[in-house]
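Protocol step 4 of 6.
Sequence for RecA family profile 1 domain-containing protein (Coccolithus braarudii) entered exactly as in the expression construct, tag removed. Do not edit the line below.
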Amino acid sequence: GLSEEMLETLTLDVMEVFAVTPNMREMHSGRRKECTLLSSGLECIDDILGGGLLLGEVCELVGAGRSAKTQLCLQIAAHAIAHTPHAVLFLDASASFDADRIAHLVRARLRDALGHPAGPRLEAACELALGQQLRVCAAHELPQLCAVLEEEVAAGSHA
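Step 5 output, structure tokens:
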């Protein structure tokens, strides 16, 4: 078999050519142990991303209209809110953020994660999590997006 060193070299060479994202190359480089991965809550997406989303990185999702991009982003955000203490910044470039939908998704995930039955305790947990962990910013043009990202980098507080 291959030595661990040979396997690492081979992995880096393959990632240099075939990595889907720059983050995958970084994750498989010498900094791999420093990277914190955040599960999307969807195993197939985590597999494609090499284990999940890199904590602290900006992720942009693009695709054809009506291909469920917003739904996927809402599901990933809801999973992070319900299953981690990390804050989520949702940059809405298309005015498609649905507060009722993310509340529904967070409520369902908290019910599963915490075993809360439907009722006042679950509603309170949902409101608290959304209030403390979610920030939504509209960024319809590149200058707005850059300004929001610069502010967030300076604050350093979002997943």
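Step 6, annotate. The chain has seven helices and four strands.
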